[in-house]
Structure formats: structure tokens, C-alpha cells
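Field log, afternoon session.

UNIT: design team B
ACTIVITY: writing a sequence onto a fixed backbone
BACKBONE:
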């Protein structure tokens, strides 16, 4: 049976389920291709940016050197936050809300680190959602397809294994389709998660070094 014949034979629920799986598959592959590019660039740019930063003679040149290497702005927000933390605060703080040494630098660096982490984590929610729900969407299509096939067979007045095998087999295709959509998303989520964790570890290490620099710690 061709795809066109299978599509015409299915009802609205079957067709809607197939469309949902198609959209989920397209969304997960778009996200995975985008994240593959992001992760590859992030791993290379982070190494170059860190080397350029520590070789720079002052903060202004360090920010410029990092900006030239950091195409996805993962390291630069941390450098800019540290540079802002080193500048004197205009107006000071009230006696009721004193600021402990290093508290401003910690807050700025934590915010910058969260921004960089959000860029790295973008799309992970899509992959996890597709990986968790696609098998159940495919199962829904299978159950409904079998129900539809049995209804057609019952209306025909005669049921045989030969007549039942075709429609049931076509319904089971939805289960395979759900798994085919879910497996790449799950593998992509886990693989990108490990790669992102490695980049985040380097950024956290840089944030700690910058905090020590701002507070004068050893």
C-alpha cells in the first residue's frame, strides 16, 4: 500500500497524529542541527576566548580580544560583568542594605553565567519533550488505527486473519513512527547535554577566577 492510499484510508485522528509526529520530527531535527553548530563553535570559541583573555594586558583589550573570538557571546558576558564589578559604585549603599565585599561581583557574574547557560541550553526542552511524548503519540495512532480497522471489518460482516493483518499492520506503523521520532531526540538530548555540561564547567571556572580577581582572593 502506498503512502497516498494509506493517507486516504485513514480518518481525521490518524492523519492528525501523523501530522503531529511529522511536526515533532522536523522541530527536533532543526533544533539538533542548530545545537550541533552551536556546540562545535562554543567548544572552539571558549578555548580561544579564554586564551585571549588571559594574554591581554588590561581589561579593555581583554574584552576586545574575547569579543573577536566569542561568536556566540558565551564568555564575553562574564568578562563584561567582571569589568563592571571592578568599577566603583556611584552613590554607594544604604546602612540598612550594606553590600559585603565581593557581593556585587558575585551577583553580576552569576547573572552573566545564567545568560550564557541559557544560550547553551536553548532547545533542550524541545528535545526532551519530543523524546518523552512521541512514543505515546505514535501509540495513540496505533490504537486508533486498530480501532478504525476493526470497525471497518465489523461493518463488512466477515472477518478473517488475511483481511485483518493488513489494516492492523498499517496501524502498527504509527508505533514505529513514534519511536523513529523519539529516538533521535533522546540521543540528541543526552549527547548535547554532555557537551553543554563541559562548556558550562569551563565558564563556571572562568567565573570563579574572575570573582577571585575582583575580590583580590588568591
Amino acid at each position: 500500500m502506498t503512502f497516498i492510499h494509506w493517507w486516504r484510508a485513514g480518518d481525521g485522528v490518524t492523519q492528525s497524529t501523523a501530522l503531529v509526529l511529522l511536526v515533532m520530527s522536523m522541530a527536533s531535527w532543526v533544533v539538533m542541527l542548530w545545537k550541533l553548530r552551536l556546540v562545535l563553535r562554543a567548544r572552539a570559541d571558549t578555548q580561544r576566548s579564554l586564551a585571549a583573555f588571559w594574554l591581554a594586558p588590561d581589561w579593555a583589550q581583554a574584552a576586545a580580544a574575547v569579543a573577536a573570538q566569542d561568536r556566540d557571546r558565551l564568555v564575553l558576558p562574564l568578562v563584561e560583568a567582571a569589568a563592571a564589578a571592578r568599577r566603583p559604585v556611584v552613590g554607594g549603599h544604604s546602612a540598612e542594605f550594606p553590600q559585603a565585599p565581593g557581593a556585587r561581583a558575585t551577583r553580576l557574574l552569576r547573572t552573566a553565567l545564567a545568560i550564557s547557560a541559557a544560550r547553551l541550553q536553548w532547545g533542550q526542552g524541545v528535545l526532551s519533550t519530543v523524546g518523552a511524548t512521541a512514543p505515546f503519540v505514535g501509540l495513540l495512532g496505533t490504537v486508533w488505527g486498530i480501532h478504525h480497522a476493526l470497525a471497518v471489518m465489523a461493518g463488512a460482516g466477515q472477518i478473517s486473519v488475511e483481511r485483518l493483518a493488513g489494516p492492523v499492520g498499517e496501524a502498527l506503523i504509527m508505533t514505529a513512527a513514534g519511536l523513529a521520532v523519539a529516538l533521535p531526540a533522546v540521543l540528541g538530548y543526552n549527547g548535547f547535554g554532555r557537551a553543554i555540561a563541559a562548556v558550562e564547567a569551563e565558564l563556571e571556572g572562568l567565573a570563579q577566577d574572575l570573582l577571585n580577581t575582583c575580590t583580590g582572593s588568591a
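LOG NOTE: The mean pLDDT is 83.
NEXT ACTIVITY: expression trials, pending approval
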